Amino acid sequence: MIVASGKRLSNLVNDILDFSKLKHHQLELQQKSVSLREQVDCVLMLSQSVLAKKRIKLINSIDLNLPSVLADENRLQQILYNLIGNAIKFTEKGSVEISAQRQNSHIQISITDTGIGIAANKQDRIFKSFEQADGGIARKYGGTGLGLAVTKQLIELHGGKIWFESTPGIGSTFIFTLPISKQKPEHGGFRYRSTHPTLVDNVGWVEQSDTHHSQPKNDKTYTILIVDDEPINLQVVSNYLSLQDYSIIQILLLTAKNQIEDLVTGLEVGANDYLTKPISKQELIARLKTHIGISKLKIAKEVADLANQVKSQFLATMSHELRTPLNGILGYAQILKNDSSLNQRAQDGLNIIEQSGDHLLTLINDVLDLAKIEAGKIELDTSDFELTSFLRTITEIVRIRAEHKNIYFKSQVDDDKLGAVHGDEKRLRQVLINLLGNAVKFTDHQGVTFKVNVIDNSLIRFQIQDTGIGIASEDIETIFKPFQQVGDKQRQIQGTGLGLAISHNLVELMGGTLQVTSELGKGSSFWFDLNLPTVKDFTAIANVETRKIKGIKSETPLILIVDDKPDNRQLLIDILAPIGFEIIEASNGIEGLTKAIEYQPKLIITDLMMPEMDGFEMTREIRQLFSNTIIIASSARVFEEDHQSSLKAGCNAFLPKPIKVERLFEYLQRYLSVEWIYEDVVSETVSTAPLVLPSKEVIENLFELAMSGDVRTIKEQVAKLVEEDQKFEPFATELNQFIKRFEVNKMCDFLESYLENE
Predict the structure, then answer these.
(1) Is 207 within 8 Å of 141 (Cβ atoms)?
(2) Cα–Cα distance between 304 and 306 in angstroms, integer?
(3) Which 3 state secondary structure label does DSSP give 539?
(4) For residue 687, what are the contacts with CB-CB under 8 A and spacing of at least 6?
(5) Is 83 helix (H, G, I), strand (E, B) or coil?
(6) What is the pLDDT of residue 563?
(7) pTM tops 0.90, yes or no
(8) Residue 642 near residue 377, CB atoms below 8 Å
């Protein structure tokens, strides 16, 4: 599950990032002499891992003696994987054959399948981005609609061309060219032999939608229709316009009637303007140009509106496609982490999988956020939150990162002046984590200082200072642009170059301005001011206990899971069934409605986008029958409009994918009023030995180290204490537990309490 989901996610992410880099001219090729036969062998072998439940023969007919091509090896594999993957995905039975032949200075490569083909009305748009097929095809095959757009641009970047031939119901052939290399290829020794007919799975592109807007082929050519029963009038107007070119048909009334009622009547029947005879050439031309200009503006607006609509649909689909495989990766990582039978090595491996998945989710969110910002779809979600505890959580996260790099992290926060505020907690966290993470990443010596000060009433300044590598003056103006990474190349590979662009836009959306000063080799300072109104009488929301849940008390609730993806249903079953919930499944809205009527479950968890009947319609139908049934929408479509639409349809709550188990349990506790049975946890700090304190000087030193976040030195100091005298072991154990739980502030309070008692 985790491996298959990871491969699918990797392909989707690569397409999205490459499309964005191509759009911003940030992608460069590393071309060399490459054996085409070997690259196809490699891609065919990789394709074996995604085959499932289809019998398709894969055939590599490329001659081993064919000249090598001049190409970027990684990008060529991406091109082949997209095209071969498409052929496999849209072929139910038969074969996929790859062949090639020399055409002068180029090699012409063909990928032929016996699949469903491409509908005639879609063939002129399959290489366009941000277009999706009709609902049935899109739901069945998935994808983001970027694969072929990226493939075409990559081929053209190599100096080649791509085209296709297709017959619906019979199959398709995609043909592209690459330049022949004059050098000998570097053989990797890889060989693939066509095997017996194998099974096939989903990869690649989505058949394009029929959304289309025709535009004038030449906006300098216009056609004017002249209607008049007097030949002389026709001749006069024709002569006036003989040297003008027009193509947008306008209706202008030319008449000798000049009364107001005549003008009104003419406009009411649909005319664009009204001219009175005798006409002036200058007036006629001026009015035509005005109306044509207005018409062009209308067309431009329609095209822009259509583009935004297509982008919005693309963003929703892309979010769904990326989060679906990540749901399996993170979901099962959370489940397996609770398996007590796993040894420490396996637990460490799961921690790495979960951390990597969370990091990947952050990158995906960055890409989606940038796309939403560009499409004007991002909005603030403000609420009341306690700023001091909010900042404490962030500083503890960053403090650990700094500790791993052996640099200090100082937090200087006006705790006495800060309290509950009103703002967008999620977006503020995103900006601060991004800026603080960058500061740690680009600092190797000394450290990072985080300052939060009240400037005036509710105006708060957030400032991040580091002693890192700094930013060159010529790069300052570009760091807030997408995909602009500066500094050491080794550090650049750790991100997408989107973080600062998104942070800059989010700060502006929240009413501030992100500013920076920097000196190369000495460090940088980023800061912004936000107006966060103070909230009085704030009450924090209690969370579900963090102890491991092993069961439920009293009766066994029945839960219906509705999702067209078996993997998503199985994930929820593996989370809920072991602790005592009774589960029934449905693979679409119609089946879900039928089982809801038959079994009348207490709670339903449903996906939103499903074939036959989606989650919205199913929820509306159930609401007409059962008003008290709890319905939770769980979807990889995480835009605010999806959330609101689900609530409007009748859902009680929205659970985004990838699913967080803690959030799921919070909803179950809230809506079903279940009582959990927790596993008994033996405290690691239990000790019968008395807590013997070291000298006041040692405690003061440890307190100062804790205040500066120097956890590494604290570990060394307490280890030395125990070495010198075993009586300090309980004291050392207490401090090590604080470090293990990342509770640096609590450790400060612990040490300070003993200083105050002196």
Answers:
(1) yes
(2) 5
(3) coil
(4) 729, 730, 733
(5) helix
(6) 93
(7) no
(8) no
